[in-house]
Amino acid sequence: MRKLTEWLLRHRTATVVVFALLTAGSLLLYPLVQVNYDLSEYLPQDSMTKRAMEEMEESFGYDAVLRVMVEDVTLSESLDIKETLSQMEGVASVLWLDDVADIRQPLETLDAGTVEQYYRDGAALYQVTLTGGDYDTASGDTIDAIRALGIDGLSVAGNAEEARNTRILLDSEMLQIFAVVVPFCLLILFLASKSWVEPLLYLAVLFVAIFINLGTNVCFSSVSFITQAMAAVLQLAISLDYSLFLFHRYLEERDAGKDAREAVLAAVQGSLNSILASALTTIAGFLAMVLMQYSIGRDIGFVLAKGITLSFLSVILLMPVLIYLLRNVIDKTRHKPWMPSFAKLGRGAMKIRWVLVVVLVVLIVPAYLGQQQNVYLYGDSAGSATAQTQTSQEREAIEAKFGVYNPVVLLVPRGDTAGEIALAQELEAQPAVTSVQALVTLADPTLPRDMLPDAVVEQFESDEYSRMIVQLNIAEEGTALTQAVEDIEAAAEAYYPGQWLAVGTPTSLNDIRLSVESDGTLVQILSILAVGIIVMLAFRSIVIPVLLVALIQCAIWINMSVPYFTGEPLIYIGYLVISGLQLGATIDYAILLTNRYRDERRLGQAPMDAAVSALKVSGHSILVSTLILAGAGFSLSIISNIPSVSIIGLLLCRGALLSGGMVIVMLPPLLALLDRVIRAGTIKRKGEIL
User: Fold this and answer.
1) Element at 92 (helix H, strand E)
2) Cα 109 from chain centroid?
3) Three-state DSSP string of 410-472
4) How large is the average pLDDT for residues 22-43?
5) Which of 245, 285, 250 is nearest to 266 (CA)?
6) Pairing relationship of beta strands 501-503 and 570-571 according to DSSP bridges
7) CB–CB of 364/553 below 8 Å?
8) What separation in angstroms does the CA of 200 have from each of 245, 256, 339, 503?
9) Structural contact between residues 628 and 188, judged by C-beta atoms closer than 8 angstroms
10) Using CA atoms, how far apart are residues 388 and 531, in angstroms rounded to an integer?
């Protein structure tokens, strides 16, 4: 590594130019990255939802369906609005009361249940089918055009509207999050810095890596909106400590009397083990997600693993060159850090080391049991916006007037009118079902199909299938919704054994749940094994990886048990991401401190003195990294209106604080107490004490 660094320093101008060109090229590529807002895309190919979606698209098209409500309108005004909507570009059809009943007759003479599905208390509700899918940008443009009509009392709801709103939120929130995170990082870094130029140097190096990562995402067919929302912030927060490790080592070498060139070479050589081990453990945690059946793990895992790799390369290749170029500025802007010394904390922890061990043991059991009992959310609630948005307020207004709209679409073989009638009647009798829309329920089944409007027939019949839209009155995930779906599927199986398909948000929840529950165990096991092996190779020890992984895993259990003890459900994708991320990202702190402990032991210090010295030297870096990671997570949690992103931020914030606290308070006493065991389980080089 020394020879490579020497070569980079000799060609320092070329090195900076190459990184500048890579950054500029990536910024040009960034607008070409495709963002996917459809979480069902990540389901396994053999899942019911995937098969049903493919069949639905082939037979009927999988176009977006909106609920459009207009309040305070008469019947004649409602018909005019329907005509206006029908003629709009991007609208395939509009279904309203006049398609299923003769509204030339007095409303009192019509079936009340039918009327109230479309017109109630002066409000008209239209079912608007678009020519594009829920997640097409063209559908979002059509919704914008509908809103631009300027119709008073207009409300829009549906997956296409949720996707449109999420796109808007994503674009605005990324800027808001960075507007909070970057100043916060600068504040912490200035407080902890030993040179005024230090924080700017860190951010310059990491922004290069972040921009290259964002631009090179163009190599993927698409990235999920969850990945897009959090990748840059997580990359910044997680990999910032690599810069800290290298720069602080450089300052130590300068303080030891080395000239700038030799100090840079020694700093890279001395910090490489910690930086490489830290990067590899984080990358391993993310790559463990790649093997998930629910392939959003592959999406998140590849993007963030690539980002951490680029951060590592930027720190190792670019930062030494920038340090050397700015060596005189760094020397002139040196100052004392404002962070307190950790020596007193280290000595205090040594005095009560046995008490700390007991406290840790007492916390482990309820935390482990609590995190196993969490209630999880699996479905589209992970991707929809929270109640502060116009979209959710309009959805609630429609639901208040016309009820919850949570449809399950059944595809059954065409041609069995009697079977469809019987199935529809059985479904309508179920307590969770509000209505069943099918040709046999919307029109007299004895009427010839050619007497019905083409727009209606095309929505409910294809060459092979009849489509039945079963509307549920349950919106929230839980056992009630699961039971309702199971009842629908049981009824379909009774009438059409092995011949039916079902698709919709409620039915996709089981597919997601079955996929991710096994994924959770897989991700945890692979993360622990991969991280443990990397730490073992880095320290040539069997005991150290067990100690470090166990300590961080305790912090993870405590973090994940909080939702159980507070009685709050946990979005499962957040649990999966943080399970791998917290271990891979925060074990860096333990690696740094343990590396320092070993250095002090090699210098001949006794175990307790070595532990205190290690904390004194590395405590600042650990605290800064902890605060920045926690701050980034906190920013995600309070700014993002996308629940999956917000919960990942909250878990990250709490997890970083717990892991950092564990390492600072618990690890030094444990290293001293287990010194003999660590020595016995370590392969030593000739002449080494530890």
Assistant:
1) strand 91-95
2) 52
3) EEEECCCHHHHHHHHHHHHCCCCEEEEECHHHHCCCCCCHHHCCHHHHHHHECCCEEEEEEEE
4) 88
5) 250
6) unpaired
7) no
8) 15, 24, 18, 51
9) yes
10) 40
Give CA angle at 506 (517, 42), nearest 5°: 50
Distance (Å, whole) CA 247 – CA 86: 64
Alpha-carbon gap, residue 581 to 413, rounded angstroms: 47
What Å distances lie between residue 327 and 197, 323, 552, 669, CA to CA? 10, 6, 37, 38
687: left (phi over 0), alpha (psi -120 to 50) or beta: left
What's the maximum distance between 2 C-alpha atoms anywhere in the chain? 101
7 Ramachandran zone, left/alpha/beta (phi>0; psi -120 to 50): alpha
Q: Which strands form 406-413's sheet, in the order they lie side by side? A: 433-437, 465-472, 406-413, 501-503
CB of 578 closer than 8 Å to CB of 652: yes
Instruction: Output the pLDDT for position 688.
Output: 54
Instruction: List the structure tokens of 360.
Output: 């840790």
Predicted local distance difference test score (pLDDT) of residue 461: 83
Q: Residue 461 — φ and ψ, nearest 5°?
A: -140, 140
β-bridge mates for residue 157, sequence order = 67
Apex CA 496: angle with CA 493 and CA 500, to 5°? 75
In eight-state DSSP terms, residue 333 is: T
Q: What is the mean pLDDT of residues 54-73?
A: 83
- DSSP assignment of 601-648, as one string? HHTT--HHHHHHHHHHHHHHHHHHHHHHHHHHHHHHHHH--SHHHHHH
- Positive or negative: CA dihedral 565, 566, 569, 575: negative
Residue 62 has, within 13 A of its CA and on its CB side, a CA count of: 20
Structure-token match 């920038």, residue found: 322
Dist CA 436 CA 469 (whole Å): 6
- Which helix (H) or strand (E) element contains residue 184? helix 159-192
H or E stretch covering 514: helix 505-539
CA gap 112, 115 in Å, rounded: 5
What is the token pair recorded at 275? Answer: 């930086």
Question: What pTM does this model have?
Answer: 0.79
Alpha carbon 634 to its chain's center:
14
Q: Where are the beta strands (DSSP E) in 350-405?
A: 376-377
Tokens standing for 201? 């140097």
Write out the DSSP string of 278-298. Answer: HHHHHHHHHHGGGG-SSTHHH
Burial class of residue 400, CB neighbours in 10 A (0-12, 13-18, 19+): exposed
Residue 75: other Cβ atoms inside 10 A = 15
Query: Of 134, 164, 169, nearest to 40 (Cα)?
Result: 134
Helix, strand, coil percentages (3-state) for the chain, rounded to 5, are 70, 10, 20
Phi, psi for 213 (deg, rounded to 5): -65, -45
**Residues of the chain above pLDDT 70, percent:** 95
Residue 449 pLDDT greater than 70, yes or no = no
Alpha-carbon gap, residue 178 to 485, rounded angstroms: 41
- From residue 74, alpha-carbon distances to 98, 111, 333, 442, 561 in Å are 13, 19, 74, 22, 54
Confidence of residue 70 (pLDDT cuts 50, 70, 90): very high
**Of the candidates 242, 265, 241, 236, which has an alpha carbon nearest to the alpha carbon of residue 327?**
265
The CA distance from 635 to 184, in Å, is 10
- Smallest CA-to-CA distance from 432 within 504, 482, 376 is with 482
Predicted confidence band at 450 (pLDDT cuts at 50, 70, 90)?
A: low
CB environment 561-594: b (16+ within 10 A), e (fewer): bbbbeeeebbbbbbbbbbbbbbbbbbbbbbbbbb
CA pair distance 663, 347, nearest whole angstrom: 15
CA distances to 195, 356, 590, 670 from 677, in Å: 40, 19, 17, 11
The token duo for 568 is 């709050």
